Batch of 2 targets.
Target 1
Amino acid sequence: MILDQHAVARLLRMEDLIPAVATALADFSAGRAVMPGRVVVPVADHGGFFGVMPAYAGALGAKLVTWFPNNQGVPTHHAVIQLFKPETGEPLVTMDGTIITEMRTGAASAVATNLLARRDASTLAIIGSGVQARSHLHALRLVRQFSDVRVWSPRHAGAHNNLGQILERQQKIDAAAAAYRQAVDAQPTFRLARFNLGRMLIALSRPDDAIVELEKLTEPRDAEAPRYLFALATAHVRAGHREEGIKWATDAKQLAASHGQAELAAAIERELARLR
């Protein structure tokens, strides 16, 4: 079985992950888990590193991660998590490790916060505005009630994008769109923020404005592009451009399939079947 990033995002819930991480940390501290230190293999010819992190605690698996800091056009980190059947060693599932790593780190901080922070703590300060800032805010809000969240970041665009995601979860769509707009204005090359802005414009019944933003995301045709193209297709359909929507959805489906994103490709195919 293979679970790609979209499948992991659909199945993994922070509400379930925090207690699971708490149990894993307790098992490790009590000596009930076998987890040797990380093994790192230098890939000197290409300036990269390959890390292997195996563990056994009832479940048997390993995280495989690469770090190639000189990458251009693709992420510097890639990870997969492989689980095996403990009784026989047979492979069970291969999972994309990106979201699991992001959420696991936030969940571990939530466990520590729940045990160590004052019960009446109401102010959260976050340094940085990357994926871990978002993950930590998501996780920590489940163990404490914050009336004030303060973020410092040299990357103001990332902070605005994270704010937009918070507002979106609160169903404050107009405010979320404004935050995403600020992110795009601060960093026009910030593709995720522009995608989020496009989604909000669709939700606000402004498909023509969404098309203007999403058309800027049609290149490059990397692993992120299928969902951008699918959003553009949706905007065209909402604007009454059915044939144009079908064209972009078809492109999105083919691109998703070429990047191994089977679940996304299947979802797009279902939408295409409805449109045809």
Target 2
Amino acid sequence: MIKFKENKGLGLLEVMISLFLLSFGVIGGFAVIQKIVQFSSVNSSRLVAYHLAQEGVEVVRNVRDTSRQNHLPFDNDISEASAPIDYRCDQFPCKPQHCEIDDEYLKKENGFYLCTDAGDSDLVFRRVVSVDKAVSGESLEVTAMVEWVEKGNTYQVKTTEILYDWQ
């Protein structure tokens, strides 16, 4: 008859190896979760920045369309420049009561981002819009650049659009 050796439990070495493997897996899982949270925060800011860049282009488009509605040349209130802008602007560059040349930072107030200077510590986004007129005089190249600093890294998004004299 064959005798089987009785298993009395796990040895010390086996327990230590299993605890090492378990702790290695848990620490790895936490590292992955930390990276996901970090990327989520940056992606959230990137989404806001893309919308702010598009808003900069849309404000210039609105100035163009307003000129046309008033039976003026499409680029009547638009000059070649690189300047800050917010939704209240009715010409480009903006009138000083809305955005001054040093007001590149945007501060969120009542759900809107408004031009302000760099004196406030909780400012995140900085937007500058550039307009170049075509030689032919029939189009405008509008470029909006939004920049922000998050967790020690500087990020930037840029969008460019050509606006034509559509009438």
